[in-house]
Structure formats: C-alpha cells, structure tokens
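REQUEST FORM: STRUCTURE PREDICTION
Request ID: SP-0412
Submitted by: Lab K.M.
Chain count: 1
Length (residues): 341
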Amino acid sequence: MALTRLKNVTATSLAEGAVEDAMVTPSGRRNIIINGDMQVAQRGTSVTGATIYSYNTADRARLSKSGASGVVVDQEIVDDQDVGDFVAKALKTTVTTVSSNAGTTGYNYRVEDLDIQYLKDKTVTLSWYAKADQAVDVLTFASCNSVSFFSETISYSTSWKRYTKTFTVSEVGGFMDIGLRQDAEVATSTYTTGVQLELGSVATPFEHRSYGEELQLCFRYFYSTMFLRSANSLTAPTNNAPQIFGARHRFADVTGYRSQDVQHPVPMRASPSITFYNPGNSGTSGQFELYSHDGNSQNFSGFITVNRETSFIFAGYTGVSVGTGGYSTVCFAHWKADAEL
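STATUS: Completed
RESULT:
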C-alpha cells in the first residue's frame, strides 16, 4: 500500500501565522481528523448499495443521509488522485438511485470528545479537497450535541479544488459531527480527500501521516483480523486465521471448558462489540475451530466472558476432552472489534 506522495509543499508555503496556530495543538499534531486521506480501508475498498449510517469503506467516514428517501449509494476508494498539492487516494461516493424527495447523502466524520474537549470557544478551520463528475451542491456542516457550528451549501466543480471553512466551536462534551453530503436528487459521483480539522483561522497544508501511524489511530475504533491477515474473506483457509493478538492459543483445561484472554492491538475507544467467524466452517458467525492434541477438529460456539477496552476473554464448552495428560489444544478464529462512534 503506497504512501501519499507530496508535491511542491515546503515550509515557506505555509500561510502567515499557520505555524504558530499549529504549535498550540496539545497532541503535537495539526490534523484532528483521522484517515482524512483515505489511506486505511479495513472493511474493503468498494461497496455497492452501501448501508446508510454505517462505515463501509474508508475508516472513520460514516455514510449518512438526511431526508433522501429511497436513495442508493455506492462507495469506492480510488487511487492516484492528483489534487494539485499531492497525489493521494480519494473516497468516491456515487448516487446510483436518486432520492424521491429533497435530501442529502454522503458521509460524516465523527470526532470523539477527547479530541475536541480543548476546542471550546476556539477558532478552528476545516479544509478538504473535492471534485464531482458534474456540478452538484454539497451540504457541509459541523455540530456537537445538536448545536450547529455552521451549515453551508457549496457547489463542487469537475476539477479538484481545496475548500475551507473557519468556525468557532461553541459546544463540547460529546462527539463532533463533520458532514460532507451531496444532493441526493442528482445521480453523480463526488470525490473527497485531504480532510483536515485544525486549530486556528488558517488552513495549513494537509498533514500527511504514515500509513502505519494512520492504521494505529484507526484501530482505536475498529479492527478486523481478516484485514490484518489479508484473508480477504471469512472462508479463508484455516491456516490463514490470525496467529496474532491471541487468535491461536493453547488450552490445557481437561473438562472441555476453553477460555483465553486476547489483547487488542491498541486500547480501543470503548469496550467493543466483537463478532467471531469460523474460518474452517465457511465463516460461520459466532464459532471457533478447535483442534485437539490428536489432530481432531471441532466447530464450537464461543462467548465473551469479559470485555474491556484493552482486551477480552472468549470461552466455550467444547465437549472435547484433551486427555488425562492435560494435552493442549489449538483454537482458530477470525473476529472484528467495533467501537465506532
């Protein structure tokens, strides 16, 4: 997976005052948005008939709508988009079936309270790069706890352009919604990348983070072992089940009860919802595959006994004896952990 390529961006290209604004961010980073250049797509790079109010492709970009009855949307990550300042991936959103009434559809970035708590009564600037296959109106907004910071309709053109909006954060204490939603009555595609939210009244050049760093930030909200092991499907071969983060473990209990503490790759935002898949049984949800010491396998249903931000414990009664000698067994499973806003 290629890193984003910078083009003609130097320290002297920063607008006056931008460096000072950037330095006051407590995290030491300017961009509060995670995955604003669409590098990470754990759920897949395309979806047809995307589910509204869910994350479908690019991590942290939640498909949403307002009104827009009957609208059908496809999403796709497209590569090598030359926006003028850099070359990057972009999120393509296509209205394939238009709305039967007025409305908008697109996606929201949800920024958690821990990232906005220090923004109260401060000036921030939102910026992003976008274009469309034909001229289309796009509703752009930011809000928190139903308090609107701004709401504005702009028109995308067929060429890449950087858009900016400066506003004051007048409310904190819950997640901030930043919306980029196109007119759902127009059958066209919009493209977005380089989404940035930063302190100050000046839009500085987009802050590029490495793919590895962006992936770690996304893990706080969601991760999938299918993605991490490049399994590509829930029916991947057993030996492609992950052997990381505790997926392949040995159990020595001779009564048929198996349990194991599994560590998440990073502490998650909250205790996640966890869904297991049995890679040896066509990806059956809620199952594991157990191998005994003598090579026999069994599909069994597991359950969560403890669920934490840092780890969880899965367990199950297998009905399989591991022998009087207490021989170990091996468990295979895929899972996804979801702590999205």
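NOTES: The first strand starts at residue 5 and ends at 6.
Reviewed by: T.R.
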